[in-house]
């Protein structure tokens, strides 16, 4: 209909903020100029947030993305995102507008509801996933999760076995480190410890995604679309974990093979271990 958003001053300090009411998956946006006017935006950037306080810029190919806006008041310019965004709040930030008019915008946001299981960790808690049997011996493992934190250090998950096997994912000074040891019952003193570090500034209170895929000695470790491929050391192909995996920290530090580490302080979302939704299991006790 008539009208649209036009701020009192047309300068680069203006923005239009949209509250979607809940965290949703946003896949596309569209803009128009202000109805029946000479006011339209020719380029703009986009920011998004879960809280309305902590903002992140929409990026593509690791650069802040500048969207092409409108060339008249009425044509709709539609942009589909290369990667969907999960957020509650959006900000449209005009960069340039019609030289013969002012800033003018009508916007539409396209998306769908986002199913999410989230667990909060206070730096003292951990979530235990106990196996049905004493020993879990796997040739293949897939772990996926998203996390956000203000703390630069903390264990995201840990599991270990009597033979010296272990797998640990932890934040260290804002970077994510994956430690794996595929022990071998015949080689108690084998040098089979492998550590790989990815990412930086991951303690910025924004969501970061993690995917770990292991098949025998071959591991793919992905953090926010950056993947490291590596082979574990040692002669063993399988990972032997006793009793349980712990998420968010190590419940009983000091057992053989563990090291004194801080527990995780932040949120973990959609946590899957070999197809099992861990947080949903915890909700259902």
TrEMBL record:
PROSITE patterns: FA58C_1 (PS01285), FA58C_2 (PS01286), FA58C_3 (PS50022), LAM_G_DOMAIN (PS50025)
Start and end residues of each F5/8 type C domain: 1-112
Keyword line: EGF-like domain, Membrane, Signal, Transmembrane, Transmembrane helix
All residue ranges annotated as the Laminin G domain in the record: 118-285
Top-level taxon: Eukaryota
The keyword NAD belongs to this UniProt entry's keyword annotation: no
Stated name of the protein: CNTP5 protein
Top-level taxonomy: Eukaryota, Metazoa, Chordata, Craniata, Vertebrata
Gene name linked to the record: Cntnap5_0
